[in-house]
Design brief:
By secondary structure, the chain is α/β, with parallel strands linked by helices. The protein has a single domain, classed as Rossmann fold, CATH 3.40.50. It is built from seven helices and eleven strands. It has a six-stranded mixed beta sheet with strand order 6-7-8-3-9-10, sandwiched between helices. A five-stranded mixed beta sheet has the order 5-4-1-2-11, covered by helices on one side. Strand 7, helix 6 and strand 8 form a beta-alpha-beta unit. Helix 4 packs antiparallel against helix 5 and helix 5 runs parallel beside helix 6. The protein is globular, with a radius of gyration of 17 Å. Bound molecules: adenosine-5'-diphosphate (2 copies). The site of one adenosine-5'-diphosphate has 6 residues, from helix 5 and helix 6. GO terms for molecular function: ATP binding; ATP hydrolysis activity; transmembrane transporter activity. Keywords: ATP-binding, Nucleotide-binding, Transport. It comes from Anaerosporobacter mobilis DSM 15930.
Length: 228
């Protein structure tokens, strides 16, 4: 089943001679439960694409369909709610709340949404990511790899339709990067969680189930569909 699709997505910045075609007709199709890497060099349009997929910024034209919904038909306030309910984000710099412990960070988005924590699901995530012994620790007392594992747990915990990861291994050494990638792969398969990540690192991208290449705002090699 297709969970995420873009149709002729365009994003231009600037005007006239300053116009930059950051996305120049992107067609993507991503299947539920797949773990996809979007790989490209600096300036190829990765961040712009991730922002569009997550409804963080509006395209010049074209559409993004998440879980059957054309997200840019929504008004700003509706889009904000849709994003909170349906999309999990993982950032390069983890973005954990420093005054909350690991467990509190993991369940924070669920509680902010006024939902009940699915304890057995969350405990399974915590175990899978090896965080059982760190639940009472504050983020600043954890290594980078551990902090990113907490961020992955937090993204998974609210069962979003898709998780979008922005260079999730960008601040990690190469061994820890491979460990984190392995965990993304395992959690995607185990929890049937769709994950789309961007990276400039070819070696990192190889660990995904599916690799999409972007150059100068275009998917290279034609339109891409990702299946497991
Ligand atoms: P990547 O994430 O692959 O490095 P980006 O999506 O950040 O690529 O950028 C794609 C292109 O769009 C680049 O040429 C970049 O300079 C340009 N760009 C990105 N954001 C803006 C902006 N806010 N204003 C103008 N140009 C931008
Ligand atoms: P991981 O691979 O899980 O990121 P590391 O190999 O970086 O862990 O760290 C090994 C151990 O050292 C961890 O169990 C952690 O408790 C401890 N450690 C690493 N970095 C820090 C840090 N900045 N502050 C506190 N403890 C740390």
């Amino acid at each position: 089943m297709e969970i995420l699709k873009t149709m002729n997505l365009l994003k231009y910045y600037g005007k006239d001679e300053n116009e930059v075609r950051a996305l120049d007709g992107v067609n993507l199709s991503i299947m539920k439960g797949s773990f996809t890497a979007i790989v490209g060099t600096s300036g190829s349009g990765k961040s712009t694409l991730l922002h569009m997929l997550g409804g963080l910024d509006r395209p010049t034209s074209g559409s993004v369909i998440v879980d059957g919904k054309e997200i840019f038909r929504l008004k700003d306030e509706e889009l904000t709610i849709f994003r909170r309910r349906k999309i999990g984000f993982i950032f390069q710099n983890y973005n954990l709340v420093p005054v909350l412990n690991v467990y509190e960070n993991i369940v924070l988005p669920i509680e902010l949404d006024g939902n009940k924590v699915d304890e057995s699901y969350v405990n399974d995530i915590i175990k899978t990511l090896g965080l059982e012994k760190k639940l009472n620790s504050l983020p600043n007392n954890l290594s980078g790899g551990q902090q990113q594992r907490v961020a992955i747990a937090r993204a998974l915990a609210s069962k979003p339709a898709i998780i979008l990861a922005d260079e999730p291994t960008g601040n990690l050494d190469s061994k820890t990067s491979m460990d984190v990638m392995g965990l993304l792969k395992v959690t995607s398969a185990k929890f049937k969680q769709t994950i789309v990540m961007i990276t400039h690192n070819e070696e990192i991208s190889q660990l995904a189930d599916c690799i999409i290449r972007i150059e100068d705002g275009k998917i290279v090699g034609g339109e891409q569909a990702c299946t497991r």
